[in-house]
């Protein structure tokens, strides 16, 4: 028996028969972690030509996930709270000169503190993620966002171009005006089969074998297939697999591994391990937007405040000194 099924970054469309097997596994109380990329981006084209296209990826799962209670959107998310990218900015023919730039397509996602699965976790390192909408209609299914963007994000509809050439001319900050866009959702309850009331003779499946409604169960849906992917360091011989969530530019390890382990433990009803894991310390990141906007204020405050305090102390000292000598 399969305790938890992980659908990890599929590339090809699912057949109706594949969907049926997954659906009926869920109807029997099976738990699933869906890690889906609704938009495909060619990283090879981006690394060689500095420009690529982002296209919708049809995996033939939309109707199934919609029936369970979510919709994955064909768009990419950009976020001010993002990882950085090392880019060669030297003119052609000159020695390489690498500088760091914000890579808005690599959001550092925020785990929700409102659910035990995602509570007390570090940011999650991602790249080319999409958004999720929850669908109302089945009161027997509870939905909760467990992973989202920062307060400074925006949506880019697909198809669209993804270019490294615009990294020096980023979008205006006023465009990053959407807060906490959902990327990960947990669904808990009794689900309705997507194959309910459907004729399945073409699949060779008798209608009598279809379980129309599930036992109480759970599933996690993430609009990013790469969240589960380890990066590989090809500069070493042999190539070395990096720890899950490791960012080679900042040399930091983010909360991807802990998030996925929490998802597995929570779906597996291992409450004891969940309580222990929720005691971990979070890595608090500075609010980069406020830092940038309030930087002049704090700079002037640090310069002027000591001078003002020194001046006040001098005035008070001289006043006290004059009074003392006047009395004497």
From TrEMBL:
The chain crosses the membrane at residues 297-320. InterPro entries: ABC_transp_unknown. Pfam families: ABC_transp_aux (PF09822). Residues 2-263 form the ABC-type uncharacterised transport system domain. Keywords: Membrane, Transmembrane, Transmembrane helix. This is Gliding motility-associated ABC transporter substrate-binding protein GldG.
């Amino acid at each position: 028996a399969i305790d938890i099924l992980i659908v990890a970054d599929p590339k090809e469309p699912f057949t109706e028969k594949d969907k049926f097997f997954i659906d009926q596994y869920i109807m029997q109380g099976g738990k699933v972690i869906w890690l889906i990329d609704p938009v495909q981006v060619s990283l090879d084209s981006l690394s060689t030509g500095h420009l690529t296209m982002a296209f919708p990826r049809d995996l033939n799962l939309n109707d199934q996930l919609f029936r369970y209670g979510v919709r994955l959107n064909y768009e990419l998310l950009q976020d001010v709270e993002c990882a950085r990218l090392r880019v060669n900015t030297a003119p052609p023919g000159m020695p390489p000169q690498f500088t760091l730039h914000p890579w808005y397509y690599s959001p550092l996602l925020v785990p929700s503190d409102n659910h035990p699965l995602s509570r007390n976790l570090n940011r999650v390192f991602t790249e080319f993620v999409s958004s999720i909408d929850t669908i109302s209609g089945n009161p027997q299914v509870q939905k909760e966002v467990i992973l989202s963007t920062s307060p400074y994000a925006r949506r880019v509809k697909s198809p669209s171009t993804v270019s490294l050439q615009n990294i020096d001319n980023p979008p205006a900050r006023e465009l990053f005006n959407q807060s906490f866009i959902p990327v990960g959702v947990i669904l808990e309850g009794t689900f309705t089969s997507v194959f309910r009331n459907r004729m399945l003779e073409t699949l060779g499946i008798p209608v009598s074998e279809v379980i129309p409604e599930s036992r109480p169960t759970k599933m996690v849906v993430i609009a990013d297939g790469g969240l589960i992917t380890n990066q590989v360091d090809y500069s070493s011989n042999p190539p070395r697999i990096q720890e899950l969530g490791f960012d080679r530019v900042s040399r930091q390890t983010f909360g991807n591994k802990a998030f996925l382990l929490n998802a597995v433990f929570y779906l597996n009803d291992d409450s004891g391990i969940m309580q222990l894991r929720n005691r971990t310390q979070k890595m608090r990141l500075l609010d980069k937007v406020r830092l940038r906007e309030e930087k002049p204020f704090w700079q002037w405050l640090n310069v002027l405040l000591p001078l003002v305090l020194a001046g006040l102390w001098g005035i008070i000292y001289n006043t006290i000194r004059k009074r003392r000598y006047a009395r004497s």
